[in-house]
Specification:
TIM Barrel; two-stranded antiparallel sheet; 30% helix
Length: 446
């Protein structure tokens, strides 16, 4: 999501963070050096790690290759990479054989059964749930998993694939006593190792942090130098997760789409990615499967991009970070850094509708029917033109419901991104997504 320099928005989002893990972009020991062991697929054919709702231990099933309805046009010619062996004797990095579809939602202390059934009705096969590490580990080092046990069990029972997004350190693990990224990578490694072990076979991917170029996600301040520390955290987490279950896909966290350069708000996403990729001569290349990206949207159609094809919308149009197609710029950085064999997952994308949140006024230009058209247009574009994207997670499913359940402002921006109303009645976007996914599955041979 796009960062806007709005103090009022930061305060509003902080009010919801305890309930929802709000990560809205408007709020603003060295790892082992051996080649990691990861679960992957061979080249030059499209990669195929097969994930099923009830995965078999050896994961030997095969998936249909992505069959777009139009010829994909890669951003640049990328040399065929050398096939590498990763954890468990699987290829590295792990990849999906065709475009998958997921949704971001919130299952803590709510009607998770309706949420999961609604997600499946729309056609989503993946669910992304964010968790707060600080709420699970206490100062003695013990883990109290609480309602996460119920969430994982319910998701597994519905036959959905689960992506866990880990954020918010316990304050005693950070250098400044905040809940930002931990000082010692070993502390995060220990936590995700326990997570992977407890939910082995039921958690299919783990995303390490979220929008780490935002001050809000980094304890209140952020600097470009933090990108190197993030890579150390990612590498330590990767090794720990793969030691437990090499089938788990490790996702590098998505920077927020922003050009803001203010240590109290954000570091530009492109600068942060460059710093991640160049740290220690490209250390990151050995320690992640997939790069997550959060492209913007504002009120701009998904096929527009500043400066060559700017949007006609009113405001939020004069920088590429306001656009869905900004994902192309991030992919270009990956290819320039020699990371073209790593796929992209968009772990948040969407369009706001009418809302009362400062900094999100662009949503007032988007009626429900346009929200539908832009979401489906972005999915169509990804399917036809971005063969390097293998998973799309819509932001979001049910934050409108959460706001209603908790007596919060029904026009807060988080709920405006939802594809259902607060009473679970469907918005037009729900039906548009449902139709698109069904048609795509037929084209993919599923």
């Amino acid at each position: 999501m796009r960062v806007q320099p709005s103090l009022a928005l930061l305060l509003l989002c902080s009010l919801l963070s305890a309930l929802t893990g709000c990560t809205n972009p408007n709020q603003a020991t060295a790892p082992a050096t051996q080649v990691p062991t990861a679960q992957i697929i061979s080249k030059p054919e499209p990669a195929a790690i097969v994930l099923s709702p009830t995965p078999t231990p050896d994961m030997t099933a095969t998936a249909q290759a992505l069959q777009p309805t139009a010829t994909p046009t890669p951003l640049a010619a990328t040399p065929t990479p050398v096939v590498r062996q990763g954890p468990g004797g699987l290829p590295y990095p792990l990849q999906l054989a065709q475009l998958n579809f997921g949704v971001v939602g919130h299952l803590y202390y709510t009607d998770r059964y309706t949420a999961l059934a609604t997600a499946q009705e729309a056609g989503f096969e993946w669910f992304r749930q964010q968790i707060h590490w600080r709420d699970i580990e206490d100062s003695s080092g013990q883990f109290f998993w609480g309602d996460l046990d119920n969430i994982v069990a319910a998701t597994d029972a519905r036959g959905m694939l689960l992506l866990i997004s880990v954020v918010r350190s316990p304050t005693w693990h950070t250098a400044d006593g905040s809940d930002g990224m931990p000082q010692d990578p070993a502390t995060l490694a220990r936590f995700v190792e326990a997570l992977a072990a407890r939910y082995q076979g039921r958690v299919h991917a783990v995303e390490i942090w979220n929008e780490q170029n935002l001050a809000h996600e980094n304890g209140g301040r952020v600097a470009l130098e933090d990108a190197g520390h993030y890579v150390e955290l990612l590498a330590a987490a990767y090794n720990s997760i793969k030691a437990v279950d090499p089938r788990i896909i490790v996702v590098a966290g998505a920077p927020s789409s922003t050009a803001m350069n203010n240590p109290d708000i954000a570091v530009p996403d492109q600068d942060y990615l460059r710093a991640m990729y160049s740290y220690k001569d490209g250390l990151i290349r050995d320690y992640f499967d997939v790069q997550a990206i959060h492209p913007g949207g504002s009120a701009n159609p998904p096929d527009t991009l500043w400066p060559d094809n700017p949007s006609p919308a009113d405001g939020w149009t004069d920088d590429p970070t306001f656009y869905f197609r900004h994902v192309e710029n991030s992919r270009r950085l990956m290819e320039e850094a020699g990371l073209g064999d790593h796929q992209v997952w968009i772990t948040e994308f969407g369009w706001a509708t009418q809302n009362s949140t400062p900094g999100f006024e662009f949503g007032n230009q988007i009626p429900f029917e346009i929200q539908r058209d832009y979401i489906v247009g972005a999915m169509q574009r990804s399917y036809e033109q971005y063969p390097w994207i293998s998973n799309l997670f819509l932001w979001n499913l049910n934050f409108s419901v959460l706001q209603r359940e908790n007596g919060l402002d029904p026009l807060h921006e988080q709920g405006s991104f939802s594809i259902v109303h607060g009473d679970w009645s469907r918005r037009p976007a729900f039906y548009g997504i449902q139709e698109f996914i069904a048609q795509t599955r037929l084209a993919q041979g599923n």
